[in-house]
Amino acid sequence: MDTIAFSPQDGSVVQTESISSESAMSAVLEVFPGAQRALFRRYHIGGCASCGFQPTETLAQICARNGNLDVAEVLSHIQTSHEQDAKIFISAIELAELRKQDATVRLLDVRSREEFEAVNIVGSQLMSQDVMRQIMGDGSNTRPLVIVDHHGKTALDAAAYFMGHGLQNVRVLSGGINAWAQEVEPAMRRYKVGS
Questions:
Q1: Does the predicted TM-score (pTM) go above 0.90?
Q2: What are the CA-CA distances from residue 49 to residues 6, 46, 136 (Å)?
């Protein structure tokens, strides 16, 4: 089965190698980097030790040991994961407006403690085990939760985790705190993360 993937850099359509039920997860993840998030979000596969998979396992093997899931349906879901990721993003301007309209919006910062202490969005919380338990245990799976990182790339994994655990209104700040500093709070200090 030939598939189509979207370039993560510019969103353009590119033809990819053939992915099938017999493809190893390492190959699936190479073609569809968001596949693990997509699997966890819909099927609760691959997000923790009890539901994880090995890179050498085939898609068919993973489907078989997770309730004999329909491989074609799972593959279709993986192929459209880029669309689901795109829907999760919220721009800095949209977030600023949302915060004005809804005082219940939670901001969860997934950067390091050092980055958070150096600069953060007022009212945001640094992710910790205690904060995660509080969010999961507050009894509201529809309260808006916006995940913040540095550039809006790594926050997708945290969003998938919360969505996989039933939260329905999870977003990711597109461009991260860097975009917030450029578009909403120009006086906010900006920084680069060393490589």
A1: no
A2: 29, 8, 19
